[in-house]
Design goal:
Length: about 350
Amino acid sequence: MQALVLTAPGEVQNQRMAVPGQPKGDQVLLKVVRAGVCGSELEAIHTKSARRVPPLIMGHEFSGRIEALGPDAEAAGWKLGERVAPNPLVACGRCRACARGLTNACPNRTLDGLHHHGGHAELALVRAQQLHRLPDTLTDDAAAAAEPVAVAIHALRLLEGMAVLPQAMVIFGAGTIGLLALQAASMSGATQVVVLDVDPYRLEVARRLGATVTLDPRTPEGSLEGLYRLGQDLTGDGFDAAIDAVGRSDVRASALHSVRPGGAVVWVGQAEEEITVNGGDVVRSERRIQGSYAYNAGDFGSALALLAAGKIDVTSWSQTYPLSTSSALIGRLLEHKEPAIKAILDPAA
């Protein structure tokens, strides 16, 4: 089969790979129909991350059709040809984090395309427990976006869990997660959503998807003080919440500075590990910092339901490319020479 393979740290190539063997037990062999390229994968290639060990087929955002079944998967009622999307995050189900419902924080979790081969190929081997059936109303392109939609839903749900009513929000970054968080925020009741990014096209898409204000952080209006004044003008005391979908130290600090006393910041992006914040901004004003990683099974199911109902738009700002030319695509994306916000691979093209 053809696949996009991480052949060495920082290098990907289109290669012919052996087809996975006949599925055993509860394994299911999927014919991949669409597979998204995640920003975390681009970041891993750029930084030569040691977390992904070559040779590796990446890809944790994909949808497909059942090509073959192990005996346990067949006994569970799965049928050949069914359209499905796998939840790529598999928790152990035995640890204390799993017992608390924090399956996304399971220390023993595995992720397709990270711990073993994923969906950037014509065929992928998964487990039956990962599968979600797809309704006819859900397109293949939209189904492949369920994973990042679940990430955005999880971030918004954490705000609700802190009893922060997101009337006015600011989102840092208009990439895939930022644009999905924007739509999730609007559905959660936010009436003012400000989005910041340095890319004019991404800001244009954000406005089309419902952002009330879009700003370039390099301008006076989008600077730290400009954003602070805007929050004061909109609410009288600052934004209720902020979502950082970038993950740089300066952006995380700006997000914290922008929210009101008692407000909350959710950190989703992971571009940098270390950060210095003003402790007084947290202590004296009881601002809250919440990390957000991935999602749980309920978030993934909600993502598919919202996509099927047409409540979340992904396809109008995504672009589909042949898997056969994906190594060149990755190079263009890394060099910022490809305008697509979300790239989706088609193994049949």
